[in-house]
Amino acid sequence: MEINKYKDFWQKYEYKIVLAVGFVLVAVISFEGGILKGQKLSQNPVIIEKLIENAVPIENNSNSAVQGVSQSQNLPSEVKKSENSAIEQPKDCAFVGSKNSNKYHLPTCRYAKSIKPENRVCFSSEDDAKSKGYLPDKNCIK
């Protein structure tokens, strides 16, 4: 008698039970996939750079009063210089180091590009860097 109750229950609700179990399995798999993807993404930090939007020009130009002048033209010359100096490097800079570190890098290395211009130290050779107490970065220099 007891077995007939279970058979009747299963025949009546079979579709709903299978559907509910399927939803639970999909939810668990999606959750685990999200955790794995989140762990992979959390390894690389997000760097947000924000330009100065409401900077007051150091020198008053008559051109700055003209509407339609781009925002970068209204930036103080100090900001413009720091942006350009981050891109431009002296030609005798075979290796780059930081005042805050004891490592030196190739100028094309991603770590060298992240050094602030005011902290950048240029070396003409590896011997020059080593003589000043710097060590080669194992990620850039093999």
Count of all domains = 2
Fraction of residues in H or I helices: 40-55%
Largest sheet: 4 strands, mixed
Please state the structural category: alpha+beta
**In percent, how much strand structure appears in the residues?**
5-15%
- Whole-number radius of gyration? 31 Å
- The DSSP helix count reads 4
Task: Return the string of H and E elements.
Answer: HHEEHEHE
Mean pLDDT, to the nearest integer, reads: 76
Q: Count the E strands.
A: 4
- Global outline: rod-shaped
Cα distance spanning the termini: 78 Å
Biggest sheet strand line-up: 3-1-2-4
List segments where confidence is low: pLDDT < 50 over at least 5 consecutive residues: 60-87
Structure, described:
This protein has helices at 2-41, 77-87, 110-113, 126-131; strands spanning 95-98, 103-105, 120-123, 135-136. It has 142 residues and is of the alpha+beta class. Strands 3-1-2-4 form a four-stranded mixed β-sheet.
For this entry, give a set of tags.
142 residues; alpha+beta; four-stranded mixed beta sheet; 4 helices; 4 strands
Task: Summarize this structure briefly.
With 142 residues, the protein is of the alpha+beta class. It folds into two domains: 1-48; 90-142, no CATH class.
